[in-house]
Amino acid sequence: MPDTVFKNLTGKLLVAMPGIGDPRFESSVIFMCAHSDDGSMGLIINQESQDIQARDVFEQLGINITDMMSPLPVHFGGPVELGRGFVLHSVDYEADSASMTVSPTYSMTASREILSDIALGVGPRDRLLCLGYAGWGPGQLEQELAANGWLTVDPTPEIVFELPNAQKWDASVRSIGVSPALLSGEAGHA
């Protein structure tokens, strides 16, 4: 389906509907970093990695963690390229040509430089470190939206950066005035 049916979702949240059918995305909230006719890319913002800690990532990259670095959980950003890191962050930080402004409030950077700055305590004020990403080929996301797989929601810094992961899905659904208990995975029912 063309983008005219589903507006550009860059900078929006995708909220997995109950019964999405893919356990990797069950109860997921995905921040959409790019959406076009060529495909889409987003980062799951509510699934913290149980196996990898920030110090593991920093050590692997040879970055020394300083006392200035505040805690930084590692999120499972999605099932594509699990060895690749992305930082979704506030726009108060920009890495030389490596930062992509997603919206007036959010940027994404995939460079060693941002991690070095975070370790020194001079990185972005708000940030999420994600390993991997969620990706869709041309038209694939639009098909999932038409099949009632996702809700689209406007993000807030509170949902993206501040709430505990376990509360992000519920808060995202409630932000559009819907009670999560009323959602159904079947098309035409909510």
Structure, described:
It contains five helices and nine strands. The chain is of the alpha+beta class and 190 residues long. Strands 1, 2, 3, 4, 5, 6, 7, 8 and 9 form a nine-stranded mixed sheet that branches. The two termini are 23 Å apart. The model is unreliable at 1-5 (pLDDT under 50).
Brief rundown of the structure:
By secondary structure, this protein is of the alpha+beta class. It has helices at 54-60, 112-119, 140-146, 157-162, 165-174; strands at residues 13-16, 29-36, 39-44, 74-76, 80-90, 99-101, 106-109, 127-136, 150-153. The longest helix has 10 residues, at 165-174.
List the defining traits of the structure above.
alpha+beta; nine-stranded mixed sheet; 5 helices; globular; disordered N terminus
Please outline the helices and strands.
Blueprint: E1 13-16, E2 29-36, E3 39-44, H1 54-60, E4 74-76, E5 80-90, E6 99-101, E7 106-109, H2 112-119, E8 127-136, H3 140-146, E9 150-153, H4 157-162, H5 165-174
Parallel strand pairs: 4-8
Antiparallel strand pairs: 1-2, 1-9, 2-3, 3-8, 5-7, 5-8, 6-7
Average of the residue pLDDT scores: 89
pLDDT < 50 stretches: 1-5
Number of strands: 9
Strand portion: 25-35%
Q: Write down the Rg.
A: 17 Å
Largest sheet: 9 strands, mixed
Figure out the total of helices.
5
List the helices and strands in order. Answer: EEEHEEEEHEHEHH
What structural class results from the helix and strand content? alpha+beta
| Shape, principal axes of CA atoms | globular
- DSSP helix fraction: 10-25%
Amino- and carboxy-terminal Cα gap? 23 Å
Subunit organisation of the chains: single chain
